[in-house]
TrEMBL record:
This is DUF2971 domain-containing protein. It comes from the Bacteria. The lineage of its organism: Bacteria, Bacillati, Bacillota, Clostridia, Eubacteriales. InterPro entries: DUF2971. It holds the Pfam family DUF2971.
Length: 323
């Protein structure tokens, strides 16, 4: 996967992205009035721990297209990748990152437990399907904020902690697209392993080659599994940002990341927040259909001025809802 500004910021599916257009591309985060208030009041956006997302099957969804991908390329594989990958693929929400520590002969492998936090947005600017998530008491009570992809990535680029990774891109919904992407990954991994094995000179070389390739496949799946969703959610046209944080993360003053907890539906829900720049990161706010538009717009304008957001335009949804 390609990089944005540094090796810790990675695009999930570069073939679907045109980085030259990032300065013009906008995504839209739909949220409740309370959610919008928190974003503006603190100049932050919130990422929810993936275990606590509304759709609890998201994290495990990738197994379905993965099994089908293996079935379709079984006759083309030189090595039994399927057994190793499926046996090692975990449903555990805590993932182990392995790295070398120490110098020269004193190096040792260290395992760091990490978790994934998700910020959900949409490429759809004014979607009835998305507004429907914010109906309360028979009325629409939601907003969406328009964000510049480029400016948001700039906010991530100020992260200094080398143990933090960021992934971003469009969610894939069509099962055929998911299967094809995984087939490409597995066939390339199989060929890489075949090339390494042809150069191996000992049983130790063979074992290390197998571990390396299987590790790369599992790393891809673990890091990008949250970009695969069931096709039933296709109308959401989701564009995601995922932060991978050490479980024992301790924020410092130089990083724009902090962590906390909220209570949702009686459950203590962990999250992390990213500090954003007030300069053009958010460039628009749209009011949902049926919201008391004139009063809502006047109150929002005054609040934006108070908080120093000087370049945000306010729009009203054009979805034609009578009542």
């Amino acid at each position: 996967m390609n990089e944005y500004r540094n090796k810790h910021i990675k695009c999930f599916n570069p073939s679907t992205e045109d980085r030259s257009l990032y300065a013009k591309q906008r995504i839209y985060h739909y949220t409740s009035p309370r959610g919008l208030y928190a974003i503006l009041d603190n100049s932050t956006i919130r990422f929810t721990d993936c275990q606590f997302l509304n759709d609890k099957s998201e994290y495990t969804h990738i197994k379905k297209p993965l099994i089908k991908a293996f079935e379709e390329i079984k006759s083309d594989l030189h090595n039994d990748l399927e057994t190793s990958v499926m046996d090692l693929l975990s449903n555990n929400f805590e993932q182990d990152d392995i790295k070398l520590e120490g110098k020269s002969s004193k190096q040792s492998l260290q395992s760091i437990k990490k978790r994934y936090y998700v910020f959900c947005s949409s490429t759809a600017q004014d979607s009835l399907g998305m507004w429907n998530y914010y109906v309360k008491g028979g009325n629409y009570q939601g907003y969406n904020i328009g964000l510049s992809i480029s400016k948001l990535l700039d906010c991530f680029s100020t992260i200094k902690n080398p143990e933090i990774d960021v992934f971003y891109g469009k969610v894939i919904y069509k099962e055929r697209d998911q299967i094809n992407l995984l087939k490409d990954l597995l066939l390339k991994a199989d060929q890489d392993l075949e090339d390494k094995l042809s150069k191996a000179k000992s049983s130790e070389d063979i074992s290390l080659s197998e571990q390396e390739v299987i590790g790369e496949v599992l790393t891809f799946i673990e890091n990008y599994r949250l970009f695969f969703k069931d096709e039933a959610f296709n109308n959401e046209k989701e564009y995601r940002f995922v932060i991978k944080l050490p479980l024992e993360f301790t924020p410092n003053t130089s990083d724009p990341i902090s962590i906390g907890f909220d209570v949702k539906n009686g459950v203590f829900t962990p999250f992390c927040v990213l500090s954003i720049s007030k300069e053009n990161t958010i460039d628009s706010i749209m009011l949902s259909p049926m919201l008391e538009s004139e009063l809502a717009e006047q109150g929002l304008k005054r609040y934006l001025k108070l908080k120093g957001f000087s370049s945000i335009t306010i729009e009203q949804s054009k979805v034609p809802i009578r009542y």
